[in-house]
Amino acid sequence: MILGFLAGMVYASLLAVAVISDVATLRIPNWISVLLVAAFVAAALLAAKPVDWFSHLAAGSIVLLVGMALFAWGKLGGGDAKLLAAVSLWHGLPLLPALVLAIGIAGGILALACLALRRMDVGTLLEARGWRAASLARGMGIPYAVAIAAGCALLAPKLFLF
């Protein structure tokens, strides 16, 4: 029980760091995705219940391949693709459709919020107060780590840890 809690805290903390980095710089460092994968392996090895390794590895692999294709097509950032694959590893195949749906809905809401905040020039106001928010500058991309984290938060109670 305590190991599941600790693994969940590592998972949530890494997602929070990804969100902060993406909002501030529109970049998600590779080490975040690497640590999410390593934390998954550790949590799965220490889990109280058996883990369906094939399901989790398949989910992560499928999402990584799709993410790489979307990155090559210019529709998704590389850091976003890697973060999506890492969190998909945690969810496995049974939760993958719900995860994609939750992230997609959160992404649509996020896009509308970014457009509204950019129209109100909130990014400039934040910059004037010393807060970096590249994601709120006009013409910039959407910090999709926010949507990924929101979708993951909605499905967190379904993770194998709990």
Which features characterize this protein?
single chain; 162 residues; mainly alpha; 6 helices; 75% helix
Question: In words, what does this structure look like?
Answer:
With 162 residues, the protein is an all-alpha fold. It has one domain. Helix content is 75%, strand content 0%. It is globular, with a radius of gyration of 16 Å.
Order of helices and strands: HHHHHH
**SS elements, strand count:** 0
Oligomer classification: single chain
What general form does the structure show? globular
- What is the percent of helical residues? over 70%
Give the structural class: mainly alpha
CA-based gyration radius: 16 Å
Counted by DSSP, the helix tally is: 6
Give the N-to-C terminal Cα separation. 8 Å
Q: How many structurally independent domains? A: 1
Q: Brief overview, please?
A:
The protein has 162 residues and is mainly alpha-helical.
Write the layout of secondary structure elements.
Elements lengths: L1 H24 L4 H17 L6 H20 L5 H42 L2 H7 L16 H11 L7
Helix pairs in contact: 1-2, 1-6, 2-4, 3-4, 4-6
